[in-house]
Design goal:
Structural class: alpha/beta
Helix content: 40-55%
Radius of gyration: 26 Å
CATH architecture of the largest domain: 2-Layer Sandwich
Number of domains: 3
Largest sheet: 6 strands, mixed
Number of helices: 16
Distance between the termini: 57 Å
Order of helices and strands: HHHHHHHHEEHHHEEEEHEHEHHH
Number of strands: 8
Strand content: 5-15%
Length: about 400
C-alpha cells in the first residue's frame, strides 16, 4: 500500500507556459496590455540602472494582474497577492516575479491620471478602426457603497473632541519616545504615533469636508437643511450618505459613466460625492471633448440627470438631449412655460415625438447593461477611501470592460 508522505522534500519543475491553456483569458489580457502605451508608468519609476534602489516591477505585470482580477470579480490587493501564490493564471501573469499587496495597491491608487489616459487609449484605438462612434452617447449614474460605516459620521462638536484627543495622544507618545531608550519599545511607540497622526489627519479632513457641506448655497431646502446639523465621516471624510437603489441610505460615492450606443464602450468616467445626477452631464460632455476632440450630437440620459441649465448648456454645445420630461402637477399641458428658453421648449417638443421615444429606448439597453456588467465584476462596494482612489477603481473597471468590448467588436 502506498501511503502519503508529506515530510518528503521535493523539487518540483513547473512549466508555466505549458501548463496554462492556449485559450485562457490570461493570455488575452496579456496581449491587450502589451499593446497599450505604458510610457507614463515607466516615467514614474525612480530606480534606474546605475542608481541605488531595487529594480521596479514591470507595470505591464501589475496592470495585467488588476485586469485579470477584475474579470474574476476580485478587488482586494491582498487577495490578488494570495492568488499569485497558488493560482496558475496569476502565476503565469507574474512570470516568476514576486508581487506583494502594497505594490499592487500603490500602483492602482496612486496612478489615477495615468489610468485615465489608458481609458482614452482603449477608446481611441476603437475609434481609429471605425468600431465606435461618438455621435450618440448615453449617460447614467450608480451609487457605489463607500468603505465607511454609518456610525463613523460625527457632528462638529464630536469631531473637535476627537481632534483634541488625537493631539494629546501624539504629545504623550512623542514624550515617551524621547524618554525611552529601548529600541524595540521605541519602534512600537513610533508606530503608535504614526497611527495617531493618521487619525488626526482624517479628523482634520472630516472637519474640512463638513465645512464644505455647511457652506453649500442655492439649495431649495436650505431652511430645512439648517435645522439638521451636518455630519462627516471619520473613516472616509469625502463619502456622503446617499439614497441607494434599494431605497436605503448608506455612505456611498456617485459613479457616472458615458457609454456609446451600439458598441457599449465606456468613453468617460466621473466620480463624486453628490447625491444628485444633475451636475455631471456638462462635465462628462467636456471630458469627451478633451479626450477625443469630438462632440456628440445626441445625449441620452434619465430624468434624474436633466435640468433646465443642463439642457441649455448642451444645446449651446450643439448636442440634443434625449431625456424624459418631468411632468409638474401645476403644468397645464404642451404649451411652453414662461421661463422656458427656446432650447428647453424644443427639448419638450422633441420628447413628444415617436422618433425621440424610439431613440431614448437605446439608453436602457446601453447604460443599464453596462452598469450591470460592472456590478457583476464586483463594483458594488469600494475597498478604498477617498474620491480619487475610488476613481482609480472605476477606471480599472472601465478599461477592463472596454477590453472585453474590443474582443466582441
Amino acid at each position: 500500500m502506498v501511503e502519503a508522505n508529506r515530510q518528503q522534500t521535493r523539487l518540483v519543475t513547473m512549466d508555466l507556459e505549458g501548463l496554462l491553456a492556449e485559450d485562457h483569458q490570461a493570455r488575452a489580457v496579456w496581449a491587450f496590455v502589451s499593446r497599450l502605451d505604458l510610457s507614463e508608468f515607466h516615467q514614474q519609476i525612480r530606480s534606474r540602472e546605475g542608481r541605488a534602489g531595487r529594480p521596479a516591477i514591470d507595470p505591464q505585470i501589475l496592470l495585467g494582474l488588476w485586469i485579470l482580477a477584475t474579470l474574476d470579480g476580485v478587488g482586494a490587493a491582498r487577495e490578488i497577492e494570495r492568488l499569485c501564490h497558488y493560482h496558475l493564471a496569476y502565476q503565469w501573469m507574474c512570470g516568476g516575479v514576486q508581487v506583494n499587496h502594497h505594490t499592487l495597491s500603490d500602483f492602482r491608487n496612486l496612478s489615477t491620471d495615468v489610468l485615465s489616459g489608458l481609458l482614452t487609449q482603449t477608446v481611441a484605438a476603437l475609434l481609429s478602426k471605425g468600431l465606435v462612434e461618438l455621435n450618440r452617447v448615453a449617460q447614467d449614474g450608480m451609487k457605489v457603497r463607500a468603505s465607511a460605516g454609518g456610525s463613523s459620521f460625527r457632528r462638529r462638536a464630536r469631531l473637535k473632541e476627537f481632534q483634541r484627543l488625537a493631539q494629546e495622544q501624539i504629545e504623550i507618545l512623542t514624550k515617551e519616545i524621547e524618554d525611552n531608550a529601548g529600541v524595540a519599545s521605541k519602534r512600537e511607540q513610533s508606530a503608535r504615533k504614526r497611527a495617531a497622526e493618521s487619525r488626526e489627519r482624517r479628523v482634520e479632513q472630516a472637519l474640512e469636508e463638513l465645512a464644505k457641506a455647511e457652506n453649500l448655497t442655492g439649495s431649495k431646502n436650505r431652511k430645512r437643511d439648517q435645522k439638521k446639523e451636518k455630519r462627516s465621516s471619520v473613516s472616509d471624510p469625502e463619502a456622503r450618505v446617499m439614497k441607494m437603489a434599494d431605497g436605503g441610505f448608506r455612505p456611498a460615492y456617485n459613479v457616472h459613466l458615458s457609454t456609446t450606443t451600439g458598441s457599449n464602450v465606456i468613453v468617460a468616467v466621473e466620480v463624486n460625492n453628490e447625491g444628485t445626477d444633475q451636475t455631471t452631464m456638462v462635465q462628462l460632455a467636456e471630458q469627451l471633448e478633451q479626450r477625443y476632440e469630438s462632440k456628440p450630437q445626441q445625449w441620452l440620459a434619465d430624468a434624474g440627470c436633466t435640468s433646465i441649465k443642463n439642457i441649455e448648456k448642451m444645446d449651446e454645445r450643439g448636442c440634443k438631449v434625449y431625456a424624459p420630461v418631468r411632468v409638474s402637477k401645476r403644468a397645464s399641458g404642451k404649451p411652453p412655460r414662461r421661463k422656458d428658453s427656446q432650447s428647453v421648449h424644443e427639448w419638450r417638443e422633441r420628447m413628444e415625438s415617436e422618433e425621440a421615444k424610439t431613440i431614448y429606448k437605446l439608453r436602457g439597453q446601453t447604460s443599464e447593461w453596462v452598469n450591470a456588467q460592472l456590478r457583476n465584476r464586483g463594483l458594488v462596494g469600494l475597498l478604498v477611501r477617498g474620491a480619487k482612489k475610488a476613481l482609480a477603481v472605476v477606471l480599472v473597471h472601465a478599461i477592463t470592460h472596454n477590453m472585453q468590448r474590443a474582443w466582441a467588436l
